[in-house]
Amino acid sequence: MIFYLLAGRNSFILRLKVFMKKIKSINIQICPTIRDENIFCPVKTISSFCNFTITPFLFCMKILLKTQVEQDYQTVYERFDRDLFLALKPPLLPLELKRFDGSKTGDEVHIRLGKGFLSQDWNAKIVEDKLTEDEAYFIDEGIKLPFFLKDWRHKHRIIRNDTGATIIDDIEYKTPTLLTDYLMYPVMWLQFAARKPVYRKYFRRQTTDDKR
Q1: How does residue 21 score in pLDDT terms, banded at 50, 70 and 90?
Q2: Distance of CA 94 to CAs 41, 73, 120, 160, Å?
Q3: Rounded mean pLDDT of 172-198?
Q4: Which own/partner pairs from 48-56 qualify as long-range (CB within 8 Å, at least 24 positions apart)?
Q5: Interior CA angle at 189 toward 47 and 145, to 5°?
Q6: What is the average pLDDT across 167-196?
Q7: Amino acid 92: pLDDT
Q8: What residues form DSSP beta bridges with 151?
Q9: pLDDT tens digit sequence for 55-97
Q10: What DSSP state is assigned to residue 205?
Q11: Which three-class secondary structure state does DSSP give residue 132?
């Protein structure tokens, strides 16, 4: 009896490992399809997996936006501060910044969307940050989200290059339903695509006239 129980357990573990390998292979195949720069594709065929990814226990929508700026990556990283956050505020969205600690691990950012009884709190915490010779990044995750979001993860990457730096907004989010995942996609994409001209203006290379 013990022999059969152990054999059954080993068989189950083997099948589980095979299943996990298949899931990982799916993830590897579909993730590159969402890496096209600045592609807006709110709805494509399910088989293309254009704007979402699958991990063993996660389904999430993804947005990836790249912006080339003139200043070096370390300067850009250091200037991800309160002033930049306010400059990036969408012009038509009522937003109040309640708390801004910074962009280091453990820091929190609290905002309030809307006004009055319709207002919603959106609080995020920096869960990781790193500075290397070629890249700087920090990751914020939602700890209290408005009703239309279930999960939120935003990786801010600043990559060094010969002409300045590239800012990458790498965003993963989930809403309460699959339908609202897709309905929210164009809204989210437009909101963060609007950051591109702000980034370029904010991080343009200073001239002699600018310094006067």
Answers
A1: low
A2: 27, 31, 11, 34
A3: 94
A4: 51/185, 52/181, 53/27, 53/172, 54/23, 54/26, 54/27, 54/30, 55/23, 55/27, 56/20, 56/23, 56/24
A5: 100
A6: 94
A7: 79
A8: 174
A9: 433 578 999 999 999 999 999 999 999 999 999 998 778 899 9
A10: P
A11: coil
Please state the length of the chain.
212
Q: Are 174 and 142 in contact, with CB atoms under 8 Å apart? A: no
CATH number of 35-211: 3.30.530.20
* Separation between Cα atoms, residue 12 and residue 23, nearest integer Å: 16
Q: List residues bridging with 168 in a β-sheet.
A: 66, 157
From its phi and psi, is residue 122 left (phi > 0), alpha (psi between -120 and 50) or beta?
beta
Cβ(199)–Cβ(59) under 8 Å?
A: no
Distance CA 51, CA 34 (A): 6
| Tokens 């063993």 -> residue | 56
Question: Which H/E stretch holds residue 195?
Answer: helix 195-202
Domain boundaries, the chain: 35-211
The CA R_g of the chain, rounded to the nearest whole Å, is: 21
What whole-number distance in Å separates Cα of residue 23 and Cα of residue 105? Answer: 31
